[in-house]
Design goal:
Layout lengths: L2 H4 L8 H15 L9 E4 L5 H6 L6 E4 L18 E5 L7 H14 L4 E7 L3 H9 L13 H9 L2 E9 L3 E8 L5
Parallel strand pairs: 1-2, 1-3, 3-4
Antiparallel strand pairs: 4-6, 5-6
Protein backbone atom coordinates (compact mmCIF):
# COMPACT_ATOMS: atom_id res chain seq x y z
CA UNK A 1 0.00 0.00 0.00
CA UNK A 2 1.42 3.38 -0.83
CA UNK A 3 2.29 5.86 1.90
CA UNK A 4 -0.63 8.13 0.99
CA UNK A 5 -3.15 5.40 1.87
CA UNK A 6 -1.28 4.60 5.10
CA UNK A 7 -1.72 8.20 6.17
CA UNK A 8 -5.52 7.78 5.92
CA UNK A 9 -5.79 9.98 2.84
CA UNK A 10 -7.58 7.37 0.75
CA UNK A 11 -9.96 10.13 -0.40
CA UNK A 12 -7.57 11.16 -3.17
CA UNK A 13 -7.37 9.56 -6.58
CA UNK A 14 -9.93 7.06 -7.88
CA UNK A 15 -10.37 5.40 -4.48
CA UNK A 16 -11.90 8.66 -3.27
CA UNK A 17 -15.01 7.99 -5.36
CA UNK A 18 -15.62 4.79 -3.40
CA UNK A 19 -14.81 6.20 0.05
CA UNK A 20 -16.92 9.35 -0.50
CA UNK A 21 -19.81 7.18 -1.71
CA UNK A 22 -19.67 5.34 1.62
CA UNK A 23 -19.74 8.63 3.52
CA UNK A 24 -22.68 9.89 1.46
CA UNK A 25 -24.55 6.66 2.25
CA UNK A 26 -23.74 7.11 5.95
CA UNK A 27 -25.06 10.68 5.81
CA UNK A 28 -28.23 9.57 4.05
CA UNK A 29 -28.99 6.52 6.22
CA UNK A 30 -28.58 8.60 9.40
CA UNK A 31 -30.05 11.87 8.08
CA UNK A 32 -26.86 13.52 9.29
CA UNK A 33 -27.57 16.81 7.51
CA UNK A 34 -30.02 17.46 10.37
CA UNK A 35 -28.24 20.11 12.44
CA UNK A 36 -29.90 18.85 15.65
CA UNK A 37 -27.80 15.67 15.41
CA UNK A 38 -24.57 15.65 17.38
CA UNK A 39 -22.16 13.19 15.79
CA UNK A 40 -19.09 11.42 17.09
CA UNK A 41 -16.98 10.18 14.17
CA UNK A 42 -15.10 7.30 15.81
CA UNK A 43 -11.96 6.51 13.83
CA UNK A 44 -12.40 9.72 11.86
CA UNK A 45 -9.05 9.68 10.11
CA UNK A 46 -8.64 12.96 8.26
CA UNK A 47 -12.18 14.08 9.16
CA UNK A 48 -13.80 13.69 5.74
CA UNK A 49 -17.28 13.22 7.22
CA UNK A 50 -16.99 16.54 9.04
CA UNK A 51 -15.68 18.21 5.88
CA UNK A 52 -18.63 16.95 3.84
CA UNK A 53 -21.16 18.01 6.51
CA UNK A 54 -19.50 21.37 7.21
CA UNK A 55 -22.33 23.45 5.71
CA UNK A 56 -25.31 21.39 6.88
CA UNK A 57 -24.23 20.08 10.28
CA UNK A 58 -21.42 21.61 12.28
CA UNK A 59 -21.97 19.23 15.22
CA UNK A 60 -19.32 16.62 14.41
CA UNK A 61 -16.50 15.65 16.78
CA UNK A 62 -13.63 13.68 15.27
CA UNK A 63 -12.05 10.94 17.36
CA UNK A 64 -9.04 8.97 16.18
CA UNK A 65 -6.15 7.12 17.83
CA UNK A 66 -3.74 9.30 15.85
CA UNK A 67 -3.33 12.34 18.14
CA UNK A 68 -2.96 14.82 15.24
CA UNK A 69 -6.34 13.73 13.83
CA UNK A 70 -8.47 13.71 16.98
CA UNK A 71 -10.45 16.54 18.54
CA UNK A 72 -10.99 14.78 21.87
CA UNK A 73 -8.81 12.64 24.07
CA UNK A 74 -11.79 10.78 25.59
CA UNK A 75 -14.76 10.03 23.32
CA UNK A 76 -16.89 8.82 26.24
CA UNK A 77 -16.91 12.35 27.69
CA UNK A 78 -18.39 13.88 24.54
CA UNK A 79 -22.09 14.67 24.04
CA UNK A 80 -23.53 13.03 20.93
CA UNK A 81 -26.65 11.24 19.74
CA UNK A 82 -25.09 9.59 16.65
CA UNK A 83 -22.01 7.36 16.72
CA UNK A 84 -20.37 6.80 13.32
CA UNK A 85 -17.61 4.26 12.73
CA UNK A 86 -16.73 3.68 9.10
CA UNK A 87 -14.49 0.70 8.35
CA UNK A 88 -12.85 0.95 11.74
CA UNK A 89 -13.60 -2.16 13.77
CA UNK A 90 -12.01 -4.70 11.42
CA UNK A 91 -8.68 -3.87 13.12
CA UNK A 92 -10.12 -4.50 16.60
CA UNK A 93 -10.03 -7.79 18.42
CA UNK A 94 -13.35 -9.31 19.47
CA UNK A 95 -12.70 -8.18 23.06
CA UNK A 96 -11.79 -4.62 22.04
CA UNK A 97 -14.98 -4.25 19.99
CA UNK A 98 -17.14 -5.59 22.83
CA UNK A 99 -15.46 -3.12 25.19
CA UNK A 100 -16.27 -0.17 22.88
CA UNK A 101 -19.89 -1.31 22.51
CA UNK A 102 -20.29 -1.68 26.28
CA UNK A 103 -18.77 1.77 26.92
CA UNK A 104 -21.08 3.24 24.29
CA UNK A 105 -24.09 1.49 25.80
CA UNK A 106 -23.20 2.67 29.32
CA UNK A 107 -22.55 6.30 28.38
CA UNK A 108 -25.17 6.72 25.66
CA UNK A 109 -27.84 3.95 25.54
CA UNK A 110 -30.19 5.90 23.21
CA UNK A 111 -27.53 6.61 20.58
CA UNK A 112 -27.97 5.85 16.89
CA UNK A 113 -25.03 3.77 15.69
CA UNK A 114 -23.94 3.92 12.05
CA UNK A 115 -21.24 1.53 10.96
CA UNK A 116 -19.66 0.89 7.58
CA UNK A 117 -18.22 -2.60 7.14
CA UNK A 118 -16.22 -3.72 4.12
CA UNK A 119 -17.38 -7.05 2.71
CA UNK A 120 -13.73 -7.95 1.98
CA UNK A 121 -14.97 -10.18 -0.83
CA UNK A 122 -13.76 -10.84 -4.36
CA UNK A 123 -14.74 -7.37 -5.64
CA UNK A 124 -12.91 -5.70 -2.73
CA UNK A 125 -9.79 -7.75 -3.44
CA UNK A 126 -9.97 -6.87 -7.14
CA UNK A 127 -10.32 -3.19 -6.27
CA UNK A 128 -7.32 -3.38 -3.95
CA UNK A 129 -5.21 -4.67 -6.82
CA UNK A 130 -6.52 -2.20 -9.41
CA UNK A 131 -6.13 0.79 -7.08
CA UNK A 132 -2.74 -0.40 -5.78
CA UNK A 133 -3.98 -0.82 -2.18
CA UNK A 134 -2.62 -4.37 -2.13
CA UNK A 135 -2.27 -4.61 1.65
CA UNK A 136 -5.43 -2.67 2.56
CA UNK A 137 -6.86 -5.56 4.59
CA UNK A 138 -3.58 -6.85 6.05
CA UNK A 139 -4.46 -5.77 9.61
CA UNK A 140 -7.91 -7.36 9.55
CA UNK A 141 -8.83 -9.13 12.77
CA UNK A 142 -12.62 -9.31 12.28
CA UNK A 143 -14.57 -10.23 9.15
CA UNK A 144 -17.84 -8.54 8.26
CA UNK A 145 -19.69 -11.56 9.67
CA UNK A 146 -17.78 -11.50 12.96
CA UNK A 147 -18.15 -7.74 13.39
CA UNK A 148 -21.86 -7.87 12.66
CA UNK A 149 -22.40 -10.86 14.94
CA UNK A 150 -20.82 -8.96 17.85
CA UNK A 151 -22.93 -5.86 17.18
CA UNK A 152 -26.12 -7.91 16.88
CA UNK A 153 -25.60 -9.32 20.37
CA UNK A 154 -26.31 -5.78 21.64
CA UNK A 155 -28.12 -3.96 18.85
CA UNK A 156 -30.77 -4.39 16.19
CA UNK A 157 -30.58 -3.30 12.57
CA UNK A 158 -32.85 -0.37 11.74
CA UNK A 159 -31.59 0.11 8.16
CA UNK A 160 -29.00 -1.52 5.92
CA UNK A 161 -27.62 -0.23 2.62
CA UNK A 162 -24.91 -1.45 0.26
CA UNK A 163 -22.30 0.70 -1.46
CA UNK A 164 -21.14 -0.68 -4.83
CA UNK A 165 -21.56 -4.24 -3.44
CA UNK A 166 -18.30 -3.59 -1.55
CA UNK A 167 -19.41 -2.19 1.81
CA UNK A 168 -22.52 -2.45 3.94
CA UNK A 169 -23.70 0.53 5.96
CA UNK A 170 -25.91 -0.18 8.97
CA UNK A 171 -28.04 2.02 11.20
CA UNK A 172 -28.30 0.28 14.56
CA UNK A 173 -29.98 0.90 17.92
CA UNK A 174 -29.40 -0.88 21.21
CA UNK A 175 -31.91 -3.63 21.93
CA UNK A 176 -34.42 -2.82 24.67
CA UNK A 177 -32.93 -5.40 27.03
CA UNK A 178 -29.58 -3.61 26.72
CA UNK A 179 -30.89 -0.09 27.42
Amino acid sequence: MDNEFNNTTQYGKIGGIYFRAILKKIIKIGNLQDSSKKILDFGSGTGELKKILRTSNKNVVNYDIVPELTETSNWTKETFNVFVANQVFYIFSREELIEVIKKLQKTNPQVEIIIGISKQGFLNKLGMIILNYKDAHDNTLLSLEQELEIFLNYTKIIKKRSVFLLTNVYLLKFKEEHV
